[in-house]
Amino acid sequence: MKGRNKIYTPLLLSIACAIGLILGARLDFDPSDELFSANPKKQKLNRLIDYIDYEYVDDVNTDSIVDVTVNKILENLDPHSVYIPKDEYARVTENMKGDFVGIGVSFYKVQDTIVVIKALEGGPSEKIGIRGGDRILYANGQKLFDREISDDSITTQLKGKANTKVTLKVLRKGIEDLLTFKLKRGIVPLKSVSASYMLTEDLGYIKIDRFSETTFKEFSQAIKDLKKQGAKQIALDLRSNPGGYLSEAINIADEFIKDDKLILFTKNKSGAIEETYAQREGSFENGKVFVLMNENSASASEVVAGALQDNDVGTIVGRRSYGKGLVQREMELGDGSAVRLTIARYYTPTGRSIQKPYDNGNESYFNDYMRRYKNGELNNEDSIEVNDSLRYITPKGKVVYGGGGIIPDIFVPKDTDSEKEKLTFLLRGGYMSRFVFDILEKNREYYNSISKNVFREEIVITEEMIDDFDTYLRSANIGMERTSEERKPLLKKYLKAEIAQQLFGTNAFERYLNEDDRIIKKVIELSKEK
To answer: Per its UniProt record, what NCBIfam families does this chain match (predicted)?
Structure first.
């Protein structure tokens, strides 16, 4: 019995510390609130933490214990209530904010030198003429090369407060003397709309990667530009979009749904319902819209798709979405960290919850993809499991189901070619990026000078490049077999798409990838139907 007590004591202490931290934090409540200031449980736990800090025989890193235990506590709530440690909070916030302050470059460290991959669109570096391949050697006279300096430290030196001045000394291939660039740090967009262009004469395409603070603004500009080019129909690509700010999704849904129609409603633990309706004349209420979804489209993506589907607007094309119908609120914990806590469930206009079950624990929940894969639903629409008790009817009589994701109106199976899937993973995961960067570095002056049209017509991925890529993967210990003859055309396409991304940005990248995309082919086919 004594042995068991020794095992359990650290865990109990950890849990107690974490509960005390959470209860003692503000959590969006006034600290003078009676519930928290006079709560005897809070006082007891705070006292325990003090005892451990000041009286316990050994030194204890209570910060690390609390971090681990907070995660454990949240795991017992639901899969989407999460803890954001202090050292990650700024990065997470920046990613969702939609911009950051800095000089606006992406870079690699090559032999201890900062080499620009690309000047980011709309940032200070792009405006002043910094290019891919430039070596940044000095910032305000401070040497940045031949030093043991981390990427984070470099980023800190290149970022700073808005409108602060920085002088860069840059080495450019083909030019003997260092170039001097004087610029002000400014706002650099982190775009969430990664592509917008015309698929056909009247079908425009918009891809949204996530819903950040600037998504609706980016989307509105994309719609405006596409309408000028003759778009009467829109393909809205939300595939693999994990979600983000609910307000941005609501604004985008409002662009397609007529006034006073319900977009969604939320319900909290007390049963209070908050309804959200379309409030303004949208820019595409009379146009035709197709929403592209897959098994990785979640949360805010599902809000948009569910709102349109339940209002009999547009057509959902692809595969059943992820199934996240929980609403989180971010609450600071007073020490620079935060908790993203589930505070409500959201429901589509017909009243269905699309949250998939999580009763069997987080591991089972996050492994749901494999269950779907094994039961065949990614390849066969008839294998999608539905619950007749969660059957709903839209105003025009369409049958829809709750209980886990948005089921598309038009099903398109997943490509089950495992070798293609591996190559796609390498591309989307950034594993091709460094290899392509090295290709460009061999003839940087030429690549930086060519136009998109010349690139499309003249740039060819050679057999030698394919062989070099296979060698590169082996040297990086990435478990891929040598590229088969059958897969070489796909790899050539992917490598050219990655080159396009580094030279011209994400719009060019997505255009190359979408050329033979089976879901986009289906959307184009549907768009031609009367």
So the answer is: prc (TIGR00225)
